[in-house]
Design goal:
twelve-stranded mixed beta sheet; single chain; TIM Barrel; about 325 residues; binds iron/sulfur cluster; alpha/beta
Length: about 325
């Protein structure tokens, strides 16, 4: 049970969130559920992640309070993740409340697209401007093998709907050696006519099995693409995870995310709150603060901030240092 302690008065409201390495945190990945309507092989076991019950998941008001507190200290972007965020009842209302926070943070969404078409207008009205959509194959049969579910056409229709609505779109493909690495060119071709960014992600061992995962490195992905295209690099923005490229004549861009090799940790600006209310200061690390317990124990803002700052003062320099012995499933972390 959480013990209430005096957090020390006088912490000025606008002190930014700075970690042990001097990195300033400005981006919150907020997982709104650990439930999903897919069972992607690289993300969770076939049976899914154990259901801890409704009460174990942060309530909407708790999420808005925690996000609001962090936004008051420099968080400017909030990415809504999961599991699959659109399976959470009331997610549009949650996005609307987050977009209405006094600091007007930018709200982003990562989704598998299955429920996107029917929610798109409401999401846009709620303030959503950019979407990352996970798609790991352009072959319907292979997509079903990877996701262990049906619905490929709904994902393609959602892509069309997002493009028609003029929202920013990134398509994230996890490259699985021997499974979909023969589709790199087909995915890159999507950028020929469409103003999308197609991002190739190194497979990382977050399937909940504890076993290492075969990975095709970012260098190998780029080398394969360069057999077909001229890739012109774009300077990487501060805190960005992808190395991005343009292909002359293409409307969109290509990105490569070296999630396994973790080459972008030096300017990492990301904080995570998972669906069960744990603060995570690194994707590869363990949960560090039980924010849900603090909120439900009626901790005040100063006490919650003190706990978050304490965790940042202990934050690892990179994902190798932080790496837990056994990695949780991506669905329970929030990506
Ligand atoms: S691995 Fe950890 S430190 Fe590195 S970028 Fe990801 S979250 Fe940040």
């Amino acid at each position: 049970m959480f013990e209430l302690t005096s957090a020390g008065a006088g912490s000025s409201p606008l002190v930014p969130l700075i970690d042990r390495q001097g990195r300033r945190l400005d981006y919150l990945r907020l997982a709104v559920t650990d439930r999903c309507n897919l069972r992607c092989r690289y993300c969770m076991p076939a049976e899914g992640v154990p259901d801890a019950g409704h009460d174990a998941i942060l309530r909407t008001g708790e999420m808005v309070r925690l996000a609001g507190l962090l936004c008051g200290h420099g968080i400017g972007r909030i990415r809504i993740t999961g599991g699959e965020p659109l399976v959470r009842k009331g997610v549009v209302g949650l996005i609307s409340e987050l977009a209405a926070l006094p600091t007007e943070p930018e709200i982003l969404l990562t989704t598998n697209g299955l429920l996107l078409s029917e929610n798109l207008a409401a999401l846009q009205a709620a303030g959503l401007r950019r979407i990352n959509l996970s798609l790991d194959s352009l072959d319907p049969a292979k997509w079903e093998r990877i996701t262990r579910r049906r619905g490929f056409d709904r994902v393609l229709n959602a892509i069309d709907a997002v493009l028609a609505a003029g929202l920013g779109l990134k398509i994230n493909m996890v490259v699985l050696p021997g499974i979909n690495d023969d589709e790199l060119a087909a995915f890159a071709d999507l950028t020929r006519q469409h103003p999308v960014t197609v991002r190739f992600i190194e497979a990382m061992g977050f399937d909940g099995s504890g076993r290492p995962m075969r990975t095709l490195s970012g260098d190998a992905i780029i080398a394969e693409l360069e057999t077909r295209y001229c890739l012109e690099p774009i300077p990487r923005a501060q805190g960005a995870v992808a190395d991005e490229f343009v292909i002359p004549g293409h409307a969109g861009r290509i990105g490569v995310i070296r999630g396994h090799h973790r080459t972008f940790c030096s300017d990492c600006t990301r904080l995570r709150i998972d669906a069960r209310g744990y603060l995570r200061t690194c994707l590869y690390g363990q949960p560090v603060v039980d924010l849900k317990a603090m909120v439900r124990a009626e901790a005040n803002d100063e006490q919650i901030l003190a706990a978050i700052r304490g965790a940042l003062a202990r934050r690892h320099a990179n994902g190798f240092e932080a790496a837990a012995l056994r990695l949780d499933s991506m669905a329970s972390i929030g990506g």
